[in-house]
Amino acid sequence: MEKFHLFFCIMVLALSSFSKKATVHGGMNTTGINHVKGIVGAILDYSFRIGKEEKVAMEMAIDDFFNHTNQSFILQLKYSQGEPIKAALFPSPPLVAATDLINTQRVQAIVGPRTWEEASLVAEVGSQSNVPVLSLADPTPPWATKRWPFLIQASPSQQAQIKAVAAVVQSWGWRRVILIYEDTDSAAIGVIPHLPGALQEVGAEISHFVAIPPLASSSLSEELEKLNRQQCRVFVVHSSLPLALTLFETAKKMKMKMMEKDYVWITTNSTASLVHSIINKATAISSMQGVLGVMSNFPETGPEFQDFHPRFRRKFSAEHPEEDNYEPGIFALQAYDARWAVALAMMETNESGQQLFDKILLTDFNGLSGEIQFTEQKLAPGNVFLIINVIGKSYRELGFWSDGGLGFSESIDEGAIYNADIENLLQVFWPGGASD
Ligand SMILES: *[C@@H]1O[C@H](CO)[C@@H](O)[C@H](O)[C@H]1NC(C)=O
Ligand SMILES: *[C@@H]1O[C@H](CO)[C@@H](O)[C@H](O)[C@H]1NC(C)=O
Ligand SMILES: *[C@@H]1O[C@H](CO)[C@@H](O)[C@H](O)[C@H]1NC(C)=O
Ligand SMILES: *[C@@H]1O[C@H](CO)[C@@H](O)[C@H](O)[C@H]1NC(C)=O
Ligand SMILES: *[C@@H]1O[C@H](CO)[C@@H](O)[C@H](O)[C@H]1NC(C)=O
C-alpha cells in the first residue's frame, strides 16, 4: 500500500502544474453571479446510466436548494471516463479532473466518483488541498477515512446487504450456494470476504467461488457448464449489471437451460438496484425472468420522493431520450442527498476546508435516499432492503427485509408484521415460470 501511496503523491505533484490542460466539461455561466454561495465539483461517468442519473439529480438538487433557500451554487461537472486507473494512462482522468476542479475551478467540495479506484485518487488530491471529497463509491476499505482526512463516504457500506442475502438463503433452507462474482477490487474489499461468514451463521455454505473478470463473455458458457455438473442449483451473483446480463443470456442459451425450473438465481444490490434501467429492454429483461434480487430500499412513499419523482422523469427523459425508461435509482437519490448535504453545510459556514468538512460531518436530515448522518466519516447504512423478483417486462417488489432481528415483511409502515420466513411475502415467480 505504501508504494501505491507514493505513486499518488508523485502524480499529484506532477499535476499541480499540469491542470490547465484538462478539459472543462459542464459548468454554468458565472457572469454576473456574485451572490453565489459556493462552488461545488462533481466527478461522474455519464456514459453510463448511473452517471446520467447522478448528473440530473445533482442539477436538481442545486435548483431545489435555491428554491428553498435563495442560495445559489455553481456546479462544476467533470467526466471521469469510467476507466479505473490504467497504469499506462498518465495522468489518469479522475486525477486530472480532481486537480482541475480544485486548482482551476476553485471548488470547495467534490462529490463522486463511483468506483473505489477512482475515489481513492480523488481523495488523495482533495486531502492534500483540504477539500472535502464525498465519495459515492460503494465499498471503501475501512482504513480509507484514516488515510485521507478529507474523505467522506457518502454511500452506505455494501456489507449491510450481506445479512439480507443470507436471510433469503436461510428462509428457503438452502444449504449450499454457488457464488459467481465479478473479479474487481471493489468486490474484493466489499461483499465477497464477508458473505461466507454470514451464510455460515445461517447454516449454509458456498460450495464454489467463481470469479469472472469484468467484460468476460467468451469463457462464461464453459464456466457455466462446469457449474452445471455440480448438484447445487442455487446461485448468488455479485456483479455489475452488464456482466450479470451477459451471464443470464449465456445461461439461458445453454443446452442445459439454466434459466429454467429448479434453478435459483439471487442477485445482490449491484445488479438489483439497476434493474429498473432495463425495464422495456425486451432481450435483457427476458433473460432475467425469475431472478431474485436484494437491493437498497429508499422511502418511495414519502412526500419528498413523490415531489422529486415526476420532475426527475421529465428532466431525465429530456436529456436522455436514448434510455429505455426514466426511473431514478437509489444512486440518483444518493447523489442528490450528497449535493444537498454540501449545500447545507456551505450555507451554514463561510469557511472552506476544515470548517466546511466539520460542518458536513454534522449533517442530519431526512434525504431522498434515507437518513443522512455520518459516523466516523461514513454514511450510516440503511437497515432495510427490498427483495425483488423479475417477471414479465419489469419486476415485482416481493417485500422487505429489515435488520435488527425483524426479518421479512410486506411493508415497513407502522404496524407492519415481520416474519423470519420469506414465504409470507408475495409468491415468487421462479425461472421457467413456476410459481409455488
Ligand atoms: C452569461 O450571462 C450573462 C448575464 O446573464 C449574459 O449576458 C451572457 O450572455 C451569458 N453568457 C453566456 C456564454 O451564456
Ligand atoms: C422553483 O420555484 C418556482 C416558483 O415556485 C417554480 O416555478 C419552479 O419550477 C421551481 N423550480 C424547481 C426546480 O423546483
Ligand atoms: C427568495 O427571494 C424572493 C425574492 O427576493 C422572495 O420573494 C422569497 O421569499 C425568498 N425565499 C426564501 C426562501 O427566502
Ligand atoms: C446499491 O447499489 C447502488 C448502485 O451501485 C448504490 O448506489 C448503493 O449504495 C448500493 N447499496 C448498498 C447497500 O450497497
Ligand atoms: C457569511 O458571509 C456573509 C457575507 O459575507 C455574511 O452576511 C454572513 O453573516 C456570514 N455568515 C456566517 C455564518 O458567518
TrEMBL record:
Gene Ontology cellular component terms for the protein in this record: membrane
Keywords: Membrane, Signal, Transmembrane, Transmembrane helix
Main location: membrane
Signal peptide: 1-21
Domain Receptor ligand binding region: 55-392
SUPFAM superfamilies assigned to the protein according to its UniProt record, in alphabetical order: Periplasmic binding protein-like I (SSF53822)
Compartments where located: Membrane
Gene3D superfamilies: 3.40.50.2300
Keyword Cell membrane: no
Protein's UniProt name: Receptor ligand binding region domain-containing protein
